[in-house]
Specification:
The complex is a heterodimer. Chain A is an all-alpha fold. In chain A, 75% of the residues lie in helices and 1% in strands. Chain A has 11 helices and 2 strands; from the N terminus they run H-H-H-H-H-H-H-H-H-H-E-E-H. In chain A, helix 7 runs antiparallel to helix 10 and helix 8 packs antiparallel against helix 9. The longest helix of chain A is centred in the first third of the chain and has 32 residues. Chain A is globular and about 60 Å long. The longest helix of chain B is centred in the first third of the chain and has 40 residues. By secondary structure, chain B is mainly α. The model of chain B has no long low-confidence stretch (mean pLDDT 92). A two-stranded antiparallel sheet of chain B has the order 1-2. Chain B has a two-stranded antiparallel ribbon with strand order 3-4. Chain B has a two-stranded antiparallel sheet with strand order 5-6. Chain B folds into 2 domains: 406 residues, no CATH class; 71 residues, no CATH class. In chain B, helix 1 packs parallel to helix 14 and helix 11 packs antiparallel against helix 13. Chain B starts with 6 loop residues before the first helix and ends in a 29-residue tail after the last helix. Classes of the chains: A mainly alpha, B mainly alpha. The interface between A and B is large, with 82 and 85 residues.
């Protein structure tokens, strides 16, 4: 395994980390409309991710920065090519972050309701668009001989990609509902379980369709294994939440996300962005990567920093391990 | 294509707007994180309540500010790929690494521990809670270092070679320690951090004075004002020292930028420092110039009679080296942004130094003029003589407004150093026009430029209003829970499993 192969794996790991973590906090955002019955319950949901959403989002920044450093050509082609979808995602993430932090900073109901609306939409839209983006990467897009994306915005909205977007949306929302049942107490916890069950079934249908389609188009033996893991884990997550085993269900919905993302990366390899115009124009781990020297430095940095990050991020979850219920929400805004 | 709407121009405007806007939050975040940490440490060590009230007050302003810093920073991580894809392809091997380091080392620190700090008041023991804000502070400073090292590569590329792969040329890293620790990076970092200290000190001073003028929250605000003034004073001293060093380094590395800053068209020996100039760029000379002889030579070379190369000669030199073309940055922008930077910084320097002296507590002050912790300090000119009331009123007023001056100064500083490097994006290696994304259409850039500007403008209004609200509100009253932080990690009831005991049902100290 050469360094650029290791970095292909590491980039996959960063995206898995991002979707695992921000997956449930996107889901929580969507659930503020689906699950919460009143504004106190909305606040319960938002506060389950309050201390952690920002740290979760750094996984995205790291994925971006690491792609820039390890595969500059991939970074350049992807983000200039998917210009408008990425713009929409960025705008959503900007508004979303401000919404979390500013929502409680004024007592007026209108102010708070506006930010709550913002939290819902800015969680839902990126949850769809990331699926669309990754489906397109896997499927291959119009890349010319100069590694430039020459398709249009509308080319990105093909049926396969839209299905991909629906899968990430439902999967993240399911993941979020399981997380909500794990982190709350009282009535909302029971309803979160019930909703998770329904969401799980919808997710299962859509995900199975999408993964089979992926397997049929680009799959091989390894991706088949990843697909099997994803499907089994998803079924397990649904069964577990049905039995009231919230912790198990959350771990399994997380594994579903990890295995599904792993499957997409497995079908890609050794490409990083296949060209639909000519196979020779595809971006690969070799023609898109940085020099071995840069990759070596990056490997050292990642090898030392990543475990430390995982350690203190896990510690944060442990500090905030207490479940939250409506009784914990103070009346006065801070 | 019309030059005003050329993709390069549009992409530059977008980068300029989003980056200058982002940087408005950066120096405040850097300094307020450290100041909040200092105040919380004072609370932990002395147990005096006004320190905790100050921590909560300044901490709130810090949070309102860092929220904007974080979200506007997300754009920066992707903008190189979106609008500058040829730049990214060319320098990614070198430039990407510090960015990845920044995310992996600094951003994770900041974002994780800021969550712990915000929500941790009733979850973490006092000392541990205080440690989290120090870690945030370390994160903000580390983040600044990596990004300045990346920028230093654009100002003065080192530690790389030009290599060819698949028929295209690109810069490849040869020595990462050179990129991280070259003089340009160190001096620039020194300058940016000094300026950040000044920004935070002035911000704190201005707001504290707002309350002191209204004679409210005196104990907390008097202490804050003194802390702000000391901070600002230290900040100005360091800013001046670092500016001098940076100026000399820049004269070595980018003489064109520095001569543009002085509108020095022809080489002169000795060269004067310009106070005012108005000239004709196309003809390459000034029509009006007010100058102090010899000073520029001294600033640039430590020698009052050294020769300083002029813009016209430097342009000719560059044409011989790099081929035909215009190698001059926008001269009026360079000239005036340089003066605004110095002007705004200088005014706050004078005010803060004067304030530090005038509001002194004991030094060279007759006992009857000394004021206590709960008094607004008198402005004392000498041991027994108070500043004339009229002047005193003016000082209070002006110092209140100085809170914003250094911030404006730092924005002009970046405008100066980035536009002054033009036409290069990587000095002497890659021109800005060769860095633009060829595949991104004019319409797309116009869309993003308009949307970013609009959203940023709306958020600016919201942010400033929110800041004003919390500034006016003053420090909060402390609650029982504030004064009795938990002794074990996780707070009351954590992990006990039962929801019945009273402690477990206590509302969270902080919730959105």
């Amino acid at each position: 395994m050469e360094l650029h192969d290791i970095w292909f794996v590491l980039i996959a790991v960063l995206w898995i980390g991002y979707f695992f973590l921000e997956g449930f906090d996107f889901g929580i955002g969507v659930l503020t409309k689906l699950l919460a019955r009143d504004r106190t319950e909305k606040r319960v949901l938002i506060n389950t991710i309050g201390p952690v959403w920002d740290g979760n989002e750094v996984w995205l920044l790291t994925a971006g920065g690491a792609t820039f450093a390890a595969f500059p050509e991939w970074y350049a082609t992807l983000f200039s090519g998917f210009y408008l979808p990425l713009l929409i995602i960025l705008l959503c993430l900007i508004v979303r972050g401000v919404a979390f932090e500013y929502r409680a900073k004024r007592p007026e109901e209108k102010w708070q309701r506006n930010w709550e609306q913002a939290i819902f939409w800015t969680s839902l839209i990126p949850a769809v668009l990331w699926g669309v983006a990754f489906a397109n990467i896997t499927r291959g897009v119009a890349i010319d001989a100069h590694k430039e994306y020459v398709g249009s915005f509308w080319d990105l909205l093909n049926p396969y990609a839209i299905l991909g977007g629906l899968v990430t949306l439902t999967l993240f929302t399911f993941h979020g509902a399981v997380f909500a049942s794990l982190k709350t107490v009282g009535d909302i916890r029971m309803r979160a379980r019930k909703l998770a069950l329904g969401l799980g079934l919808v997710t299962a249908v859509l995900a199975l369709g999408f993964l089979l389609w992926t397997q049929a188009d680009n799959g091989d033996g390894k991706s088949l294994v990843a697909m099997a893991v994803a499907v089994v884990a998803l079924v397990g997550a649904i069964v577990a939440i049905r039995m009231g085993r919230e912790g198990w269900s959350f771990a399994l919905s997380g594994i579903t996300i990890a295995a599904a993302v792993a499957m997409l990366f497995l079908t890609l390899f050794p490409n990083v962005m296949p060209s639909s115009l000519n196979e020779e124009w595809s971006l690969t781990v070799t023609n898109a990567s940085s020099s071995p020297y840069t990759l070596k430095i990056m490997t050292w940095c990642a090898a030392i920093a990543t475990p430390v990050v995982l350690l203190y991020q896990s510690w944060t979850y442990w500090v905030f391990r207490k479940r939250i219920g409506t009784q914990h929400i103070a009346d006065a805004a801070h | 294509m019309d030059l005003a709407l050329a993709p390069e121009t549009l992409a530059r405007w977008q980068f300029g707007i989003t980056t200058v806007y982002h940087f408005l939050f950066v120096p405040l975040t850097i300094s307020l994180a450290a100041l909040t940490a200092i105040l919380e440490t004072a609370w932990v060590r002395t147990g005096k309540e006004h320190y905790l009230r100050a921590t909560k007050f300044w901490g709130k302003l810090f949070l309102i500010n860092i929220a904007m810093g974080v979200v506007t920073g997300i754009v920066q991580e992707f903008q190189f790929g979106m609008n500058w894809s040829d730049y990214s392809r060319f320098v990614g091997d070198v430039f990407g690494a510090p960015l990845a380091f920044e995310a992996l080392i600094a951003f994770f620190f900041e974002s994780t521990f800021i969550g712990l700090w915000i929500f941790g008041w009733d979850k973490l023991p006092k000392k541990l809670h205080c440690a989290t804000i120090w870690i945030v502070s370390a994160g903000t400073i580390a983040s600044a270092y990596f990004i300045i090292a990346a920028n230093a590569f654009m100002q003065h590329p080192v530690g790389y070679k030009i290599a060819e792969r698949d028929g295209t040329k690109r810069a490849e890293l040869t020595d990462f320690s050179k990129v991280l620790f070259q003089e340009t990076a160190l001096v620039n970092f020194f300058h940016v951090i000094s300026a950040a200290i000044l920004v935070g000190g002035a911000f704190m001073t201005g707001i504290a004075i707002f309350h002191l003028r209204k004679k409210q929250h005196i104990r907390t605000m008097r202490m804050s004002m003194r802390l702000g003034l000391v901070t600002a004073f230290v900040g100005t001293l360091l800013t001046v020292i670092s500016a001098d060093t940076l100026g000399k380094v820049m004269y070595e590395q980018q003489p064109m930028k520095m001569s543009a800053a002085e509108a020095l068209w022809e080489s002169e020996k000795p060269a004067p420092f310009s106070l005012f100039a108005y000239g004709d760029v196309s003809e390459g000379h000034n029509k009006v110039a007010i100058e102090v002889p010899g000073v520029l030579s001294f600033l640039a070379k430590n020698n009052f009679s050294a020769e300083i190369p002029g813009i016209n000669d430097l342009n000719k030199e560059a044409q011989e080296k790099y081929g035909p073309g215009d190698y001059r940055p926008n001269i009026p922008t360079a000239y005036w942004s340089y003066r605004w930077m110095i002007g705004f910084g200088g005014v706050s320097m004078v005010l803060c130094t004067a304030g530090l002296y005038l509001t002194r507590r004991k030094f060279w002050l007759a006992p009857e003029h000394r004021t206590g912790e709960d008094d607004v300090p008198k402005l004392m000119l000498t041991k027994n003589k108070e500043l004339a009331p009229k002047l005193g009123t003016w000082w209070w007023r002006l110092s209140q407004w100085t809170l914003i001056f250094p911030l404006i100064g730092t924005a002009w500083g970046w405008i100066f150093t980035e536009t002054g490097r033009q036409p290069w994006v990587v000095y002497g290696v890659l021109k800005t026009k060769d860095g633009v994304s060829p595949g991104v259409s004019q319409g797309e850039v116009i869309t993003s430029l308009v949307v970013f500007t609009a959203i940023y403008a709306i958020l600016a209004v919201i942010e400033v209003k929110l800041l004003l609200k919390y500034v006016k509100q003053g420090p909060p009253e402390l609650t029982e829970a504030d004064l009795n932080p938990p002794t074990k990690i996780g707070g009351p009831g954590a992990g006990s499993g039962s929801d019945s005991d009273e402690d477990a049902d206590r509302p969270m100290a902080f919730s959105y």
